[in-house]
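In this supplementary section we document a worked example of the pipeline. Step one takes a protein sequence of length 124 as its only input; no multiple sequence alignment statistics are reported here. Step two produces a three-dimensional model, which step three serialises into structure tokens for compact storage. The input and output of this example are shown verbatim.
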Amino acid sequence: MAGAPVAKTPHFALHRAALSSAHEGRALFPVADAWLGVLLPKRWAKRAVTRNAIRRQIYEIARHQAASLPQAALVVRLRSEFSRQQFVSATSDALKRAVRAELEQLLARPAPRAAGPVETRHAV
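The serialised model returned by step three reads:
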């Protein structure tokens, strides 16, 4: 995440790293595939239920768009708060729709990957 994000929306940023480590010459992960991590700071989503709802939306969108994700390590980062005045409920349908719309925009931006197995790995 030291570099600039490859894509941004008003609330999210997408960071990308190559799967091979340049300075050590070895693979970051055992399988060349799309690897996805999520960073949701309490600073921007104070309630755990909101963070969990956003996290589920991220993984679900990534699962649907797995074929178009690049073979890289991707990190989706929440970079600003969803207005608590606009989204009063921590898991409202309106919040989920807003999150989903932004995530679809965000994950549609990286370059498509070569044909291969369609599987999204989750970083631990």
